[in-house]
Design goal:
Elements (H helix, E strand, L loop, with lengths): L6 H8 L22 H4 L2 E2 L10 E2 L3 E3 L6 E7 L4 E9 L2 E9 L7 H14 L3 E7 L2 E9 L8 E11 L2 E9 L5 H12 L2 E2 L27 E5 L1
Parallel strand pairs: 1-11
Antiparallel strand pairs: 2-3, 3-11, 4-5, 4-12, 5-6, 6-10, 7-8, 8-9, 9-10
Length: 225
């Protein structure tokens, strides 16, 4: 995605999201979401008041808060925004939203694909129940020139109405419970704008540079949210 992309980001990007046509029959395609998703988020655009202020990024809207830094991740080859990174309280949350079927979910299948991808790279993964459902934790290798060892990365996701919102959590929130709770709150404030137009399942919802911000000329651009 970018030249400075982390191993976790690369692994996530390499997972081919698909509509399940070639999936094995035993893959769980039920929706994965908190019981109170409609009330506590992540929200569908139809579930929030129109007058509430948000940073409009197209497929997702982010609620502004003090200390939040927003960065757009850009695919230079395609010249399009492909992810939104939110830096908050010594943690990083990278989010993407995908189109999904109306009655079935994507996260159970995608989580399994991520685990398989990490396994081929020799990384250890585990699943953990959370307030959002089931998270995937990967111990990703750190290059020797960056100190070596492993770095924990947490993948979270929620299946909503005709969409899936996926987050990659790094930094302090990947190892500290209190920091994780703060980032989960940030994740649950996000609004997904699916739109009414037809889209194949697992297609990335289009993202855009918010109004008043110059389009990025570098791999990413940042602003105070």
């Amino acid at each position: 995605m970018t030249e400075n992309q982390s191993p976790a980001d690369k692994a996530a990007d390499e997972v081919a999201l698909h509509d399940g046509a070639d999936a094995t029959p035993e893959v769980d395609d039920s929706k994965s979401a908190p019981a109170d998703r409609a009330e506590a988020g992540p929200f569908d655009a139809s579930e929030v008041p129109a007058m509430r202020p948000y940073v409009d990024l197209g497929g997702v809207k982010v609620a502004p808060r003090e200390g939040l830094q927003l960065r757009l991740e850009v695919d230079e080859r395609a010249n399009r925004v492909v992810a939104v990174s939110l830096e908050y309280a010594e943690s990083l949350l990278q989010v993407q939203a995908f189109a999904a079927p109306k009655t079935t979910g994507l996260w159970h299948g995608v989580r399994g694909e991520l685990a398989q991808q990490f396994a081929t790279q020799g990384a250890v993964t585990s699943e953990e129940a959370s307030a959002l459902g089931t998270d995937l934790i990967a111990q990703t290798p750190v290059p020797a020139d960056q100190g070596g060892g492993v770095r924990p990365v947490r993948f979270v996701a929620v299946d909503g109405p005709r969409w899936m919102l996926r987050g990659v959590i790094m930094g302090k929130a990947a190892v500290d419970a209190e920091a994780l709770a703060n980032v989960v709150d940030l994740f649950r404030e996000i609004v997904v704008v699916r739109g009414d137009h037809p889209m194949p399942p697992s297609e990335l919802l289009p993202l855009k540079v918010p109004a008043g911000v110059q389009a990025p000329q570098q791999p990413n651009t940042a602003q105070q949210a």
